Amino acid sequence: MRNKRRFWLIYFFMIIGLLYIGVLQVKISQYSDLKAPRKADYLIVLGARVKGEIPSSVLASRIKTAARYLTENKDTIVIASGGQGPGEAISEAEAIRRELIKQGINESRILLENRSTNTYENIKFSNRLIPPKAKLGIVVTNTFHLYRALSIADYQGLSVKGLPAVTPWSAVLKSYSREYLAITKFYLERYMFGF
User: Is the Cβ–Cβ distance between 45 and 140 less than 8 Å?
Assistant: First the structure.
């Protein structure tokens, strides 16, 4: 009898867990096809892992997406955001800067935010670099990350649009699994602990 009760309890929590993940996936998916407006005043490119001095495939996708937008919108500046973590020879911001220059973006258009260690700090510290007269801003990150990034920006009072970068297939399983946990942490901090 006790084993049967334990089985149903485990089954119940598994169903609740799957439903919760399903809700999160719907929210993530709603942000993965956003169309960014043209002629933004600024972009914020959120950092991701750098292997030595080489951007990971996730970060490379963000940089490529940002470079394409910046090429088409010549007056838009870009804030490269991300500090230097373990195993990184340079900051994520510096890796973004170098790759944008390689892709034809003039260095004078690039501002560096190289202190942040997470998405909350990416937004917070980048916000301080936004030119006073700038109005329209866009956050560039991968499809799996955009919902949380824009939620954090909104929570901090920063009104920005989103520009989704493709999530490389090699990173899908790991990235989405970690993102479900990161969103849950954000919910807990925001709604239960007041952030």
Answer: yes
Q: Which residues, 6+ apart, have CB-to-CB distance to 133 below 8 Å?
A: 41
Q: Sign of the CA dihedral 49, 131, 43, 123?
A: positive
Give the C-alpha separation, 78 to 74, whole Å. Answer: 11
The amino acid that residue 139 corresponds to is V
* Distance between first and last Cα of the chain: 43
Q: What is the pLDDT along the chain (195 residues), one digit of tens a residue?
A: 667 777 677 777 788 878 888 888 888 888 888 889 999 999 999 999 999 999 999 999 999 999 999 999 999 999 999 999 988 999 999 999 999 999 999 999 999 999 999 999 999 999 999 999 999 999 999 999 999 999 999 999 999 999 999 999 988 889 988 999 999 998 888 766 555
Q: Hey, CA dihedral for 179, 185, 189, 190, is it positive or negative?
A: positive
